[in-house]
Structure formats: C-alpha cells, structure tokens
C-alpha cells in the first residue's frame, strides 16, 4: 500500500486496461513462487501493476552452455588516454574471443570547448583595463585544463581573483568573440551566452545573501520566523479591515473606536499603554468585519444567530474573565444578555454597548497600571492592588478611591484613606451619582493643598 | 466578451441581488397550550398549537412558502407541512418536547430553508398543580429573518409590505435607515385569528430605552476615567521631572 501511495497509483485501480484487471485477483490467491511470501506481502498482497522484475525470470538458470565463458586478465587501451599507458583488467571471454571495441568508459571523457582567440582578436575586442593579456591567457589555459571548474582555477591562479570575477572575464571574453566571429548578429542571438550575459554584481550579491542565510544562527532564524508571522498577521488584519469597508456594520464601530482612539491619543502621547489600547479594538474590528462578511454570505439567517456571531466576534479578543465581567456589568445595568426583542436597532445598540463596556474595562486596566507606576515613584509604601471588582458599583467605587490615594504623600493620609476605602467596599448599594460628586471634589482639594 | 455577457441580464442566471439592502422579516413563533380539564385523558391532556406569525400579525405568505413542523416521533406522521398561512398546527397530547420549525421561502427570496427550535410547554411555572381551562400557557419568541442580499424581484415585491422591513445602508455607512415604516398600531392587526388575544406584544422601545440608558452610563464613566488618566499623566510627568 505504501508503495502505491508513493507512486500515486489509485488504490482501486479504476483505469486499468481490461486484461490487467483480471490478473491482480488471480495473482493474489496464487502467491507466486518466485519470491518469498513476506516479500510479496510488502506490495500489499496484490501484484504490482507493472511487474518490475519478471517473476519467472528470477531464479532461472543461466542459458544453456553452448558457449564457453572464461575470464581473462588482459591489457586494454582507451581512446580517452593520450599517453600509451598499458593497463590490464578482467575480461569476459566468450569462446576464446575477447571483446572488441573501445574501452567502455572512454565515452565519458568529455571536455569543454574553450574558445581560443588570436592576438589580433584580443587587441580588437578583448582589451580590458582590469585584465592583462597574460592573466587572460592564463585564465583560458586553466579553464581548458580544468574544464571550467572555476573554483579550482581561482585556487590555481597566482593573483587573487574571486570566482565571480574569473567567471565574468571568461564569459565576457567568450561572448565578445562569439559575437565578433558570427557572420551576423542574428546567428548567435540564440546562444545562451549572448542572450543572458553574466552579471557580476548580481552574482556576487546572490552568493553573499546565500552565505548569510547559511551562517544564520538559530536565534536569528527564530527571530526571522517571528517577524514573518507578525507580518502575516498584520497583512491578514489589513485584508479583513479592507473587507470591512463593504460591510454596513463596520463604519459604525470604526466611528466609535476611531473617536476613542483619537481622544486617547490627544490625552497622553507617551503613554506606553496606548498601543495596548489601540491594538485591542483593531483586532476585534477585524473580527467583526469578517463575522459580518460571513453573515452576508448566508442567504438567510436569523437575527438572533447573527447577533450571537457578532457578539462572539467582538469579544474574541478578550479573555474569558473579561467576558464574564462584561456580562456582569450588563446585568448590573439591567440589560438582558440576549435582547428579548431582537430587532435590528436593538441588536446594534446592544453590540455598541458591549464595545463600550470593553473600552471601559480597558481604560480601567490602564488606570490601574498608571496607579502602580505612580506609586512606584513615591516611596512605594502604598501597594495599590485593589483585586477583582465584584460589581459595577465596586468598579465605580474604585474610580473614586484611586484619586485620593495617588495624591497623598504622607503616611497619615494613607491610614485614613485605606479605612475609607474599606468602608466604601462594604456599602455596595450606594447610588453612584449622588456620591461621585463629593468624591471628586475631595481629590481636587487635596491636590490644591499639596501643590 | 465576458464583460458584455455579464452586463446583460441572462434570463437563466440568478436575478440581480441588491447589496446595499437588507430585508428583515420580524416573526414571532411559539406555542399556546390549553388544558382540557374534564375532557383530559391520560394520553391527551392538553390541546396545543404551534405557530409562526408575523410580529404584528401580518401575513407571512409573501415571504414564506410553507412551514414544516417536526413533532415528536410518537405522533402519527410527525412531519407536518403547512402549505399556506396561517402557518400553524394544532394537536392534542400530554408531553413536552422540542419542535423543529423549518421555514421554506419563496424561490426569489431564498432557496435554502431556515430551521427554528421551540420547546413546547404545557405546564405553567407559577401555579404547579393548578391548571385552568381558560388560561393557556403561552411561550413566544421574537426573532427576525434577515435576507442580507435580497434579489431584485423579491425586494420589489415586499417593499411595500406592512410586515416586512427593509434597510438600506448608506455608502459611507452611517446607521442604516429603514425604507418603510412598520405599522406598529395595534388596530391594524387582523383580529380574526381566534388566538390573537393571547399574543404578546413585542415592542423594541422598552429594550431600546434600557440600552440607551446603559450606554449613557458607561459612556459617562469612560469620560471620567479618561479625565482621570490625563490628570494622572500630568502628575507623573511632573514627578519624573522632579526626580530627574
């Protein structure tokens, strides 16, 4: 079976000619006696379509002994040798007649026709500032001797030239001579040397690049692979974003995300978390674009189905925890997970809301990072790890507590504020609007006093 | 040569599809089940009806050619096809099971059927044990059938249909706008359906307002956080300057 797979022969042999079809079933039962059973089984239990070895011939005896075969140690000559060296070898002699003909390997003695130029040809066509007459002569002589093995020639030559330079000189000379000797340009235009002359610069560059790749360390290879993968991802994101331009849903989300991005950029240019924020929406935008594109491919779909697809696409870039938090927030806001009346506008609004919640969560994360940064600049005596907020109210509470904590410099404030933070945590049922304004006023006051 | 062939409408090739238009058919599907009271037997304790209707009780026959209800295998001929509106099926039974509702559309709308699933509910949750002949158990679900690329013929046909919504997306793609206003007024609905008194109203206004309020809240918090972030950055910079 494996052999068949490799050869690409169809297993059911549909295209066999008729007479061969009758053979495989017969043979498989017979198990031919020429070869052992195990060997036969290697072919998969069926005879091969084209028996490579005629099975009947395998263990046949040699031909009847009409002739006497002896082996003799005889001398021979080869047309390939120019000297008259006499060599000996074993020869199969049939009935006392040694075989005739040239040495059988003489035909492999091929050599290259290296062009020979005359002096006047040299003066007319082959003058080159970088090459003296002697050098060129030497080059051609060696080329003939070594059959254009430029590596050897380069080694042999007394003056140092790179292989490419030698090649360049040789090919340009040959080309010039060819063109010069040709009766008309048309005759030689088919010659490969004329059509594609040797390009020194390109060849050197190519070999340099190859050697660079060869000598790349493993580390480099891995880095290259990573860069390629990233480039591919970026390309795909771009393609998906392009597809999104046809869809109707995307312009809304790009509108929303675009505003968000612009605001963020204006606010803090050097924030390191900016790229984090910016990268999240584009990825989910690409996802939603491809989701809506695939929806449009369906001839018909249910609104709820389409809605689920879009929700999945939008939250594809977020982790499981983030998704749970989004759903928690939705619950706290009194919005159904799945709209009870999923009309087009309701679904769109819901998706927008989800996106905004994601934005909010992102911002909060940034905020926390900034907080950590800020406190590390201080004495670092106020570890600001709030833990996972359990409800939307708590998230809002945290907004308020961070500001006072970040602006306090003295230890006395910290104690006060930590207490206050706990108190706020224990009172979950507070309406946010009522207490947010006094909370905001407090940090401002603190700031003024400190500055 | 190929381009010429494409520009002419070939009668055999599919009709032109409108890319910027989306046809949306709001439907309500569900079951109503009545307890039979004294007439109930072991095997037939409830009489129920499964149906698919337009959300405002308008006629779905313009879009839907036939509906096939797949019932529990214990019924005779569990595959029941309803060839004309109203697309509903009544039966008597004792058990709850999932009904597969397959909608087949007219050829110019869509050649592929769409399947919905609905769980038949016979017993109400709030009063276990006490059932009333008068009050049925109603479970309805709202959904919309979306045709993203309607064919020209189909669109022309349903453009002015009271129950069918069409959305056009503007080329620069702001919010898509409805072409026709749906008659939400209840007086227009066909009152001759015997069960219509039990039908629920599905109005999107409620959800929309809740969603809008939620979005406003979230947006408010976003703005606040952004301000805080910017002020924090200002502070950080000043601190950094001090440290340096």
UniProtKB/TrEMBL annotation, chain B:
<dbReference type="GO" id="GO:0005634">
    <property type="term" value="C:nucleus"/>
</dbReference>
<dbReference type="Pfam" id="PF03366">
    <property type="entry name" value="YEATS"/>
</dbReference>
<keyword id="KW-0805">Transcription regulation</keyword>
<dbReference type="InterPro" id="IPR055129">
    <property type="entry name" value="YEATS_dom"/>
</dbReference>
<dbReference type="InterPro" id="IPR038704">
    <property type="entry name" value="YEAST_sf"/>
</dbReference>
<keyword id="KW-0539">Nucleus</keyword>
<dbReference type="InterPro" id="IPR005033">
    <property type="entry name" value="YEATS"/>
</dbReference>
<feature type="domain" description="YEATS">
    <location>
        <begin position="17"/>
        <end position="161"/>
    </location>
</feature>
<dbReference type="GO" id="GO:0006355">
    <property type="term" value="P:regulation of DNA-templated transcription"/>
</dbReference>
<protein>
    <recommendedName>
        <fullName>YEATS domain-containing protein</fullName>
    </recommendedName>
</protein>
<keyword id="KW-0804">Transcription</keyword>
């Amino acid at each position: 079976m494996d052999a068949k797979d490799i050869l690409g022969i169809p297993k059911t042999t549909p295209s066999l000619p008729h007479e061969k079809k009758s053979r495989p079933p017969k043979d498989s039962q017979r198990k031919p006696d020429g070869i052992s059973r195990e060997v036969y089984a290697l072919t998969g239990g069926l005879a091969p379509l084209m028996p490579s070895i005629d099975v009947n011939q395998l263990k046949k005896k040699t031909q009847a002994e009409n002739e006497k075969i002896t082996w003799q140690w005889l001398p021979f000559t080869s047309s390939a040798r120019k000297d008259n060296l006499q060599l000996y070898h074993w020869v199969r002699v049939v009935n006392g007649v040694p075989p005739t003909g040239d040495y059988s390997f003489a035909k492999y003695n091929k050599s290259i026709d290296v062009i020979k130029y005359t002096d006047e040809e040299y003066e007319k066509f082959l003058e080159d500032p970088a090459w003296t007459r002697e050098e060129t002569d030497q080059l051609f002589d060696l080329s003939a001797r070594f059959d254009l093995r430029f590596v050897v020639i380069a080694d042999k030559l007394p003056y140092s030239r790179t292989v490419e330079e030698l090649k360049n000189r040789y090919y340009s000379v040959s080309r010039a001579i060819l063109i010069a000797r040709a009766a008309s340009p048309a005759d030689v235009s088919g010659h490969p040397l004329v059509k594609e002359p040797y390009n020194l610069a390109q060849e050197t560059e190519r070999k340099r690049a190859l050697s660079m790749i060869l000598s790349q360390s493993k580390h480099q290879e891995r880095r290259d692979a990573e860069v390629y993968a990233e480039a591919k991802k970026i390309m795909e994101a771009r393609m998906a974003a392009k597809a999104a331009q046809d869809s109707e849903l995307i312009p809304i989300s790009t509108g929303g995300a675009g505003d968000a991005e612009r605001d963020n950029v204006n606010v803090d240019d050097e924030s390191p978390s900016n790229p984090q924020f910016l990268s999240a929406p584009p990825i989910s935008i690409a996802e939603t674009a491809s989701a809506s594109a695939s929806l449009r491919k369906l001839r018909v779909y249910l609104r709820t189905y389409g809605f689920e697809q879009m929700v999945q696409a939008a939250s594809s870039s977020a982790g499981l925890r983030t998704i749970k938090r989004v759903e928690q927030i939705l619950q706290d806001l009194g919005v159904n997970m799945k709209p009870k009346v999923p009309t087009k506008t309701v679904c769109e609004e819901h998706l927008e809301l989800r996106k905004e919640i994601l934005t909010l969560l992102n911002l909060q994360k940034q905020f926390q990072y900034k907080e950590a940064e800020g406190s590390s600049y201080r004495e670092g005596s106020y570890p600001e790890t709030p833990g996972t907020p359990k409800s939307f109210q708590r998230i809002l509470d945290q907004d308020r507590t961070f500001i006072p904590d970040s602006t306090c410099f003295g230890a006395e404030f910290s104690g006060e504020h930590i207490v206050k933070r706990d108190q706020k945590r224990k009172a979950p049922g507070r309406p946010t609007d009522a207490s947010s304004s006094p909370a905001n006023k407090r940090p401002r006051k603190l700031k003024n006093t400190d500055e | 040569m190929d381009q010429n062939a494409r520009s002419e409408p070939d009668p055999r090739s599919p009709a032109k599809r409108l890319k910027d238009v989306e046809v949306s058919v709001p439907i309500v599907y569900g079951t109503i089940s009545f307890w039979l009271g004294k007439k109930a037997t072991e095997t037939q304790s409830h009489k129920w009806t499964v149906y698919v209707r337009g959300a405002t009780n308008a006629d779905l026959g313009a879009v839907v050619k036939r509906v096939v209800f797949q019932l529990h295998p214990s019924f005779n001929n569990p595959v029941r096809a309803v060839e004309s509106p109203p697309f509903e099926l009544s039966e008597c039974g004792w058990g709850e099971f999932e009904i597969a509702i397959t909608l087949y559309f007219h050829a110019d709308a869509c050649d592929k059927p769409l399947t919905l699933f609905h769980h038949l509910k016979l017993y109400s949750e709030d009063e276990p044990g006490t059932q009333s002949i008068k009050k049925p158990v109603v479970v309805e679900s709202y959904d919309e059938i979306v045709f993203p690329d309607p064919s020209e013929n189909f669109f022309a046909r349903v453009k002015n249909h009271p129950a069918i919504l069409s959305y056009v997306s503007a080329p620069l793609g702001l919010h898509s706008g409805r072409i026709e206003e749906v008659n939400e007024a209840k007086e227009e609905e066909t009152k001759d359906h015997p069960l219509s008194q039990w039908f629920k109203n599905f109005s999107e206004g409620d959800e929309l307002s809740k969603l809008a309020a939620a979005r406003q809240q979230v947006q408010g918090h976003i703005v606040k956080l952004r301000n805080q972030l910017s002020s924090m950055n200002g502070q950080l910079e000043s601190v950094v300057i001090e440290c340096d």
